[in-house]
């Protein structure tokens, strides 16, 4: 475990969480990453692009030549900082606040992206919510439904709306999770949604193969993002990531190149329906 990981204090925040309140702050600005114009001339919509993995992906895409729209809930400071990072790379960035657990907000995010950036070539479905529980009895029907509306329904709504505008040869990338690969007894609703995301990915890849729209998924293990201190007990944040063989959580910067790989036709033209799993050395079936 790195010195930074060892010195991480117990901490908590109100959901959805803010990057500036994390100690230490995540590495999510892709510092030192050098693009190769792999996404030159492309436009991308990233849900949950204000912070964490979404921010790192937005900056990486910009460094590869893409203009980026960032859809997010209400974290205006984080979204504004992401926009500055994208614009510093000479690319355009549109920030779109809204509750993507509602269908209208998903359709508005897509429409705003197309209107402001002139098109849509890459969709990254990335938003998520979670809450640790001790048993199924702790999960209310409202919470179960809200988790699915955020983690699954938004992916369906954004994808459906995006396909009205995406040209053949585009790319869709969904964010899954190791918890959707092997389950998690303390994240029952979240793990169920991520399993659904993985199957949605594989099914949509089959639907869109004739249009050569590649649909893939990145399923990370533990990643240090605002989701963690805003949803987990303080004592668990201090040791977060210690359960994997690499003995530490990933940083968003560690995960973002997987999205670049799957977005770039030059790198992954023969990949569709795949679940790429950067999970710190953990093995899993399938």
Explain what you see.
- The chain has 286 residues and is an alpha/beta fold.
- It is 39% helix and 11% strand.
- It has ten helices and seven strands.
- A seven-stranded parallel β-sheet has the order 3-2-1-4-5-6-7, sandwiched between helices.
- Helix 3 links the parallel strand 2 and strand 3.
- Helix 2 runs parallel beside helix 3.
- The longest helix has 22 residues.
- It is globular.
- The relative contact order is 0.17.
- The model has no long low-confidence stretch (mean pLDDT 94).
Low-confidence stretches: none
Shape: globular
Strand arrangement within the widest β-sheet reads: 3-2-1-4-5-6-7
Helix content: 25-40%
Main β sheet profile: 7 strands, parallel
Distance between the termini: 28 Å
Series of secondary-structure elements, N-terminal to C-terminal: HEHEHEHEHEHHEHHHE
* Alpha-beta classification: alpha/beta
């Amino acid at each position: 475990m790195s010195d930074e990981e060892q010195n991480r204090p117990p901490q908590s925040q109100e959901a959805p969480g803010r990057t500036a309140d994390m100690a230490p702050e995540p590495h999510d600005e892709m510092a030192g990453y050098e693009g190769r114009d792999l996404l030159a001339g492309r436009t991308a919509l990233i849900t949950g692009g204000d912070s964490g993995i979404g921010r790192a992906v937005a900056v990486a895409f910009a460094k590869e030549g893409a203009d980026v729209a960032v859809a997010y809930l209400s974290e205006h400071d984080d979204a504004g900082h992401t926009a500055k990072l994208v614009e510093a790379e000479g690319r355009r960035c549109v920030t779109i606040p809204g509750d993507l657990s509602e269908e209208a907000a998903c359709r508005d995010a897509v429409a705003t992206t197309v209107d402001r950036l002139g098109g849509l070539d890459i969709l990254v479905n990335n938003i998520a919510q979670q809450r640790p529980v001790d048993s199924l009895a702790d999960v209310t029907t409202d919470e179960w439904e809200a988790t699915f509306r955020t983690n699954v329904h938004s992916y369906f709504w954004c994808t459906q709306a995006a396909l009205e505008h995406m040209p053949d040869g585009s790319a869709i990338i969904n964010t899954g999770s190791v918890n959707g690969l092997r389950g998690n007894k303390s994240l029952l609703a979240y793990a169920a949604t991520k399993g659904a995301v993985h199957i949605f990915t594989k099914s949509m890849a089959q639907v869109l193969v004739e249009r050569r729209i590649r649909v893939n998924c990145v399923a990370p293990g533990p990643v240090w993002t605002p989701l963690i201190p805003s949803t987990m007990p303080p004592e668990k944040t201090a040791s977060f990531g210690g359960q994997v063989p690499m003995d530490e959580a990933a940083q968003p910067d560690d995960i973002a190149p997987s999205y670049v790989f799957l977005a770039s036709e030059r790198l992954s033209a023969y990949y569709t329906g795949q679940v790429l799993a950067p999970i710190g050395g953990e093995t899993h079936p399938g």
